[in-house]
Each structure stands twice: as C-alpha cells, then as structure tokens.
C-alpha cells in the first residue's frame, strides 16, 4: 500500500513538473486575429517589427461569417503552432480570442482596442452599453451583413492614418455577418489565462471607456495609446512593444 501511495505521489509530482515546464516555456509564437470590417493586411508593419525581434507571427484571415466559423479558423492556425502561443485580437477579434483562447497552446491573450466579453455577452450588447462616437455602420441590401459607410470610414475607423491608406481600407473592408455581431460568448478564456489590453484613447468605433471597463473586469494589464481604432496600423511600434512585453512576461 505504501509503495502504491509513493508511486502515485511520484507520478503526480512528475506531472506537475512537466506542466510547470510547459507553462514556463519561452513564448515565440504570435497568432493575430484581425477585427471586422478590415483584414489582416493592416497588421503588416507590426508583424514585421515582431518578426525582426525573433517571433513567429501568423495572422488568421477569418471569414467573419459567424463567431463559430471565426473561432474554427483561428483554431486551425493554432493547430499549426509548435509550442506556447500568444493570441492577439483586435476589435471583434477580441471576441474570437476569448473563445479560442481555451486551447492548451494559448499562454496568454492580448486585446487591441478589442471587445472582451463575459459569458452571454455579444458585440452588439457590449457596444450598445456604451455607444461609440462613430455611427456609420450600414446594412447590405439583403440585411445579412454590415459595413462602414466608405465616406465616414476614414474618420470613424482610422483618423490617424494617411488619407490614401484609409481610402484603400474603406474600399477593401471585409463585410461582417450580423450573426457574428449578435452571437453570445461562452465562458471567457481570460478567466483562466493572463491577459493584456490596449486602450485606443481616440477610438470612434469602440468607446474607450468601454475598453477600460472590460479590461478592468478581466484583470488585464492595460496600456493606453493615443490612437484611432486602427491603432495596430497607426502605432505599430507601440502595439508590438505591448505584445513583445506580454510574450516575455509569459516566458519568465
């Protein structure tokens, strides 16, 4: 009996040591989930900065047809990662990483001007709780998808980017299914994973006060950056610094 107890204790100790070693492994993989009404190309500058610093960066190009579809697209990219991964989400992408972040490979979460839902909340319910100053969302003729009025896009989405860049973003925006915006989140990964949040103080797409409230509730380490909703493109160095710091903190 004593031998069996000792064997059980030894196995438990070995398992805990392995688990600790996995948690403490260096985080070199970054997976980025872009927001709605845009695609991953806007992350080029931040990606180049992080790649130059030695990170393996992958961007999920999710369809934004439903929350389930977008979580599945993110999961497919996570499956390709070798080792612990930092999951980053912008805007609607924050809802996606809150769901996909339960994956064992995910070491932590970074929310970039993003929604951080609790269980039962949706993008629409959160956005309506503290409306943003930009009110340029339109429905497609079939009533199934949403987009930003191209005329209002520069001011509401990326006011601190050059006009030619915002004009292109307006023309290339990825329409979002209304179903994705109304989908209710499940149990949030931020309750069990460390998280960081960037508040874009000049954001007209998500109320900065809402960003602060969600980050506080989640216990995220907060960095405020004076920037538009497109903070990842207008302030790529500062955004990369937060992601870099989060990866290093998870590697300690």
TrEMBL record:
Please tell me whether the keyword Hydrolase is annotated for this protein. yes
Task: Supply the alphabetized keyword list.
Answer: Hydrolase, Signal
Task: Show the InterPro entries listed in the entry.
Answer: AB_hydrolase_1, AB_hydrolase_fold, Sec-Metab_Biosynth_Hydrolase
Question: What's one GO MF term for it?
Answer: hydrolase activity
Residue ranges of the AB hydrolase-1 domain? 30-242
Q: Where is the signal peptide?
A: 1-21
Transmembrane parts of this sequence? none
This one is known as: Alpha/beta hydrolase
């Amino acid at each position: 009996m004593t031998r069996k107890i000792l064997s059980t204790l030894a196995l438990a100790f070995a398992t805990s040591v392995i688990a600790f070693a996995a948690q403490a492994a260096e985080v070199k993989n970054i997976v980025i989930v872009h927001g709605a009404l845009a695609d991953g190309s806007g992350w080029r500058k931040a990606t180049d900065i992080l790649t130059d610093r030695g990170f393996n960066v992958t961007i999920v190009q999710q369809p934004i047809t439903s929350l389930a579809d977008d979580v599945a697209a993110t999961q497919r990219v996570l499956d390709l990662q070798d080792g612990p991964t930092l999951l980053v989400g912008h805007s609607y992408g924050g809802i996606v990483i809150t769901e996909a972040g339960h994956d064992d490979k995910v070491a932590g979460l970074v929310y970039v001007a993003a929604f951080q839902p609790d269980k039962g909340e949706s993008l629409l319910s959160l956005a309506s709780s503290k409306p943003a100053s930009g009110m340029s969302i339109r429905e497609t003729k079939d009533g199934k998808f949403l987009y930003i009025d191209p005329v209002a896009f520069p001011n509401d989405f990326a006011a601190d980017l050059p006009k030619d860049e915002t004009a292109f973003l307006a023309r290339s925006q990825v329409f979002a299914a209304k179903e994705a915006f109304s989908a209710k989140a499940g149990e949030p990964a931020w309750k069990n994973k460390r998280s960081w949040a960037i508040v874009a103080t000049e954001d007209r797409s998500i109320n900065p006060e809402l960003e602060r409230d969600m980050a506080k509730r989640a216990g995220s380490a907060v960095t405020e950056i004076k920037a538009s909703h497109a903070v990842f493109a207008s302030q790529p160095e500062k955004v990369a610094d937060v992601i870099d710091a989060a990866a290093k903190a998870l590697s300690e």
